[in-house]
């Protein structure tokens, strides 16, 4: 794998670069021809948090993960675990969607990896009354959830309000 590692307002030392490359080499077992794959890594620091963002563009899809932690080395470990988890979680989907001949850069040993099925483990029926966005935020906070589905009286549609990583809110309107 070819690495492009850069720091955003942060100097990337040789030790950091070697640690990142060493950890990301764990992912090479999933690629048939890892020499042709380019991995882009961006490291940034804001306040006490060190953030690492890894993007691996492949032919048919992109692997991407981002992690923040007070310790940069811990963030690197977490982001590699997250990328490996994405590959393992989606291996069946990738296998069904693309034949091995169509996706030459991935060579999963599908039998060696444990089989994970997508299952719905809980189903809930919810009565919803029409409300505005402020009331939906209040309901979401009272329930201590990261999202809330409601009938939006302002937009006259079903909406989903969600908490973003920056602790602000986003809204999806289904029309």
Could you describe the 3D structure shown?
By secondary structure, this protein is of the alpha/beta class. It folds into two domains: 2-97, Double Stranded RNA Binding Domain (2-Layer Sandwich), CATH 3.30.160; 130-174, SHC Adaptor Protein, CATH 3.30.505. Helix content is 27%, strand content 31%. It has three helices and eight strands. The protein has helices at 14-24, 72-97, 133-143, and strands at residues 2-8, 38-46, 49-57, 62-69, 130-131, 147-152, 157-163, 169-174. The strands form two sheets. The protein has a four-stranded mixed β-sheet with strand order 1-2-3-4, covered by helices on one side. Helix 1 links the parallel strand 1 and strand 2 (38-46). Helix 1 packs parallel to helix 2. The termini are far apart.
Number of domains: 2
Strand order of the largest sheet: 1-2-3-4
Helix content: 25-40%
What's the overall average pLDDT, rounded? 82
| CATH C-level of the largest domain | Alpha Beta
Order of helices and strands: EHEEEHEHEEE
Please give the radius of gyration in angstroms.
21 Å
Number of helices: 3
Structural class per helix/strand content?
alpha/beta
The major β-sheet equals:
4 strands, mixed
Distance between the termini: 44 Å
| β-strand number | 8
Identify the CATH architecture of the largest domain: 2-Layer Sandwich
